[in-house]
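Standup notes
- DV: blocked on the single-chain target, sequence here:
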Amino acid sequence: MIAQLTGTIIYNASNPVVVDIHGVGYGVFMPTSIAAKLVLGSTTTIFTHTHVREDALQLFGFLTLEEQRLFELLVTVSGVGPKTALTVMDRGAKAVQKAIISHDVSFFTAVPRLGTKNAQKIIIELKNKLGSTTDFDLSSDTSETTSLIDALKSMGFETKDIRDVIGRLPPDASIEEKIKQAIRILGKAKII
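- DV (later): unblocked, structure below
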């Protein structure tokens, strides 16, 4: 498996981008928005995903490990191939993460060859994998806090706002009472 290439960009007009490493040109498929950032003749490090099939060996590349890892998560979803995942990644890693966390099906259905069913599968299968690293850190949360956050998020409140309110709730109250009080506080904040 080829995980990273460092070399000179000798072609970036269309996919694949060609990276010269000691006289060998590697063709790397990249999202157009990322390939556009590459400067011909510059030395660049590209983090790659090696995709092997019966009839092909392809490299898909990104400028950050975050982009590469998100791409690798996308291709684990059944029905989402590397070319489709590459098109999704063209919209930006942060935007993709945000769409998964906020259950934005329309974000994914706007991608060619990606229907509603596969868009929903991406969100369902990747939500937990992304939520643990980009939404909030559960390492210090109790199961009650996690349940409280999940319940309030399902009602449309933002994680940041929920966390601000949790610290103001009485620690000895039942979870039901905490949810009621949090809704009152969060509801007033939305009105203001």
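- Follow-up: Residues 35 and 148 are 42 Å apart (CA to CA).
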